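Hi V.,

Quick status before I head out on leave. The structure for the redesign project is tokenized and pasted below; the design run finished overnight.
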């Protein structure tokens, strides 16, 4: 990114190589938010004009010696406003180190006192579902054969019985798509 920034701030035309462009596009769709952020930043820097690039990445290395304010004193005004509005004061790490310690979970009383903390033991297993019982006689399949009584008259009984069996066979072979 620095090379592109220096080229742009020197007001030289910057053309990104197709391989680099495809890499930037691939990184923009990455699962890593860090890689996505860097790809979007590079795209933004390339699209800026020379004065804007000069202000964010000066070529005289004036941003190289950055001092870090570990006390974050520049936030004091913001913190004071939040405290005045009812925010809880910050508890330093050395004062709250005994409040949530994993080794304290051996004592049940302490465990109950920390119910709003993290839970380290496993949850209960779900109870198995009770299967509903349907009597087998109530379930009828469309492919089962249902006996049809033969007509009571003597003449043509065999042929009528055969006719009903054929009708049932045809009914079973129907497709209900």
């Amino acid at each position: 990114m620095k090379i592109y920034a220096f080229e742009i701030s020197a007001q030289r035309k910057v053309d990104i190589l197709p391989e680099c462009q495809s890499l930037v596009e691939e990184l923009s769709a990455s699962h890593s938010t860090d890689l996505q952020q860097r790809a979007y930043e590079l795209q933004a820097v390339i699209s800026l004009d020379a004065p804007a690039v000069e202000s964010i990445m000066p070529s005289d290395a004036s941003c190289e010696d950055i001092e870090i304010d570990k006390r974050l004193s520049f936030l004091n005004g913001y913190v004071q406003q939040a405290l005045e509005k009812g925010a809880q004061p910050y508890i330093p790490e050395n004062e709250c180190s005994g409040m949530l310690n994993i080794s304290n979970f051996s004592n049940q009383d302490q465990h109950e006192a920390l119910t709003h903390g993290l839970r380290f033991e496993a949850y209960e297993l779900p109870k198995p579902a009770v299967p509903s019982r349907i009597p087998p006689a109530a379930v009828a399949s469309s492919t089962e054969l249902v006996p049809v009584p033969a007509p009571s008259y003597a003449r043509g009984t065999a042929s009528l019985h055969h006719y009903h069996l054929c009708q049932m066979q045809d009914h079973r072979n129907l497709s209900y798509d």
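Above is the designed sequence. The radius of gyration is 40 Å.

G. will cover questions while I'm gone.

Best,
W.
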